[in-house]
Amino acid sequence: MFATMTTTDMTLVLGSASLFAAVAWGVARAGAVWDSIAGAQWSQQTEMFQRLGLKTSRLRLGLRLWGATMIGSVFFLWAVCGMFPVALMTGVMVYVAPRYILHYLVERRRTLIRDQMVSATMGLANAVKAGLSLPQGLTSICEEVPEPLVSELRRIEFEYHRGRPLRDAIEEVRQRLDIDAFTLFALAIEVSLDRGGNVGEALNRISVSLQENQRIERKLEADTASGRQIVQILAVFPLFFIGFFYFVDPHAGALLFGTLAGQLVVCVVAILVYLGVAWANRIMRCDV
């Protein structure tokens, strides 16, 4: 096949291959540069991901998609659609979106560990009361506790079997997680190890306290669930209103995006919706 190709054909093939290689190299370099930029921008969230045992590989992929979405949406709305105010507003919204998404993922992980601490503490208290030592009790509850808490407990167990003092292994996990429920659990064990005492009884009191805190927090979440749902409905209502308005009167609806004044109105509405949602969430936020 190559013998029948002319010089022009060979030049085209080599040029295409060189262009493909250059594009691939540029994309790889751009990805590495973007990873460093995004890592510096969201270093605190990335550190929290690592401390809670979340997978940072998916975070890296998500941040790349975030960058591509931000650049692509701004380019499309500005260069293709000619809507600079809307493009600027969209770019800002996409830019700040990871802060809320990552915060949600971190808080969901922390809440899951907090809820699992109740049954884990109660199980360890019963194991100690049954005559098992603390390391043996940790081994027994690891068979019952689900992820992600079981990974932290197995890490403590692994460090202990490697020769590290149990107190130091628990303290390292406590400082890394920085979750109130685990802090109470760790301090109860550390005090009992340092000063002696009935570890099972101390863990039992801690489990009762954690269970009561969990009950109060879930009651608060249930009481504010309807309010959060109303806020979500009101937040997306302007989008449905614009769609309905465009369906009823396409010419008048097109003025929102076809004129500078209409685009500024859309931006103002987006800002007001954002401020309203942030204010409502602050009002409904209750810390126990």
From TrEMBL:
It comes from the Bacteria. GO terms for cellular component: plasma membrane. Residues 124-246 form the Type II secretion system protein GspF domain. The keyword Lipid metabolism does not apply. Keywords: Cell membrane, Membrane, Transmembrane, Transmembrane helix. InterPro entries: T2SS_GspF_dom (IPR018076), T2SS_GspF_sf (IPR042094). It is a multi-pass membrane protein. Its main location: membrane. It is found in: Cell membrane. The chain crosses the membrane at residues 75-102, 230-248, 254-275. The keyword Membrane applies. Gene3D superfamilies: Type II secretion system (T2SS), domain F. This is Bacterial type II secretion system protein F domain protein.
